[in-house]
Amino acid sequence: MTRPGGAPDRVPAGAPDGVPAGLPGGVPDGVSPTWGVRGLTVWFGAHAALRDVTLEVPAGQVTGVVGGDGAGKTTLLRILAGAAAPDAGEVRRPPAEQTGYLAASSGTYPDLSVDENLAFAAAGYGMPGKLAAARASQLLERTGLAAARQRLAGKLSGGMRQKLGVVRAMLHRPRLLVLDEPTTGVDPVSRADLWWLIARAAAEGAAVVLTTTYIDEAERAASVLVLEDGDALAQGKPEEIIASVPGTIKISPERLRGDAARRAWRRAGTWRVWVPPGYDGGADGTAGGEGAADCVTPDLQDAVIVAALARELWAGEPS
Amino acid sequence: MTELLAQSIGATRVFGHIAAVSDVDLQVAPGEVVGLLGANGAGKTTLIRMLLGLLPPSAGEVRLFGQLPSLATRRRLGYVPQGLGLYDDLTPRENMSFAAAAFGGAGGERGAPGRHRPRPAGLAKRGVPGGQRPRFPGLAKRRAPGGRLPGLAPLPPGLESMSKITVGRLPLGVQRRIAFAQALAHRPDLLVLDEPTSGVDPLAGARLWETIGDAAAAGAGVLVTTHHMDEAQECERLVVMAEGRVVAEGDVAAIVGSARVTVVETPDWSGAFEAIERAGSAAALVGRTLRVPAASPEEVKRMVGAVPARVYEAAATLEERFLQLTLPAAGAGAGAGGGAGQAH
Fold first, then answer.
1. How would DSSP label each residue in A67-109?
2. Which of B218, B253, B288 is the last residue of a domain?
3. Do A191 and B171 touch (CB under 8 A)?
């Protein structure tokens, strides 16, 4: 699939599914449709919440959308879930009854117990009671919620409430599972349980799309869309985003000064500086040197920072 | 010998029959960034509350700047809670003025104490007299080189254009910068930060860490509590708590140590995932690979059986190691598979 306007500067979202080198086969459920959006634009008054965003959400894998507060993540997920409509662009999603959605503001009723929340959801999905109860038991048991089934959702800890919200959203085995910041504010133990639910839904064949503000969490997704101010800053498989970093990244034990300071950031007690391709400003000592000892192999965090720096520094320049 | 900024010695706090914190030794020295990790209920908040003097220990001791915590020691602290503690209906400038008044004035103004704002009554008597409070030699250079309005720290650079907008209407990244500026304005000797970069994009996060690093380089001690390993990796030293006790301490490499996980690469990850589940173990999904924290490659090969897969051992990540340290040995059913019970 090509981006509207054919912009070749980003990794296409529809790159072939990754299969480890030397292994046969492909995604088992190869005929499943791919949900997603294409050329999506959303205006909030004069402010573009999303600008020409394209994202594929394939079945049987996790797609991550990462960005800071206000980047457009929630708007994108609301549209994928059918809770909002775009001003321009295409949306491909299954019918509402085959979609599961956890909104950022928790999808549970505080005055109902855990069991009542799930029974209510099952009725809404038109699921047979017995089937729903059996599936709920299995998911609650596995994520440490079994003992809390009679508790009111409003009395649960943040992590338990988020787990309940995800169980509720995936109870009816939706083909598309849309989770808005499922792990925000939870501790690492609850986060592991939430990721088990997420993996479980993907293993059952659902197309899972989730948002996060943390890069290390986004890196757990098979493919990632990085949003900033409504624009796609980078997208693709994490390794593709890393491979597409222009220029080189150097490491410096000391803080950089002058022009280089604008291209530098702090990582784990040292500084990293991005040297754009063809950069020859040797005065600050950061030019050239591909393969030099102080070059670092970027990770996804570095790659996203470089994309943000490039956007900041090249803003307004003809591309 | 360096004076410790914050110290707990065998600190213990019991609520009813439950020890929320048991026998914890923690030190924060000037210039150091210490990360405190722990699941909910591990005792982090109770320990911090004791260190801040909000809660007396049931046994053991806590020291702030070498003294028992008090209002006087509290004035040498900067604290940014996760909720940021800003007033949404005030502008950035009003927020900072208000905080400056509450802390008895911003740093660097001691030559003109209280010139333009009243000292809050409760602090007037007990506050350390201006200019008299003990300081560390390294801290002097943090004073602004003059030219600044007494008691009124500048807004962070680039925020002047937003000075008339109430804080509640500003983006979260901007709010975080204001909260930092506010916490740093009185030049605290000890900064306590709760998930300092949560909710902001990576570049903004890196810029916030620069600010934290600058404060440490100038001699402040920083204690960061977080649930995120991205943030933990920015700290020089980590202290991991579980069930009220310190279970690991050191830099990232020391904490991860030789912990290993088993990695499964397969075109049929969902088949392998189910097979590992059925075998009673647990796999975490990362991209299209599975990571099994509690079983050897040989065991995992047996579990996945006929599923074509490349199975090998790899170093654990900090998060995986954290879960191994945190989850009880019997917790193989939990999340990314506890079960790797041996903590050391």
1. --TTSSHHHHHHHHTTSS--SEEEEE---GGGEEEE-SS-SS-
2. B253
3. no
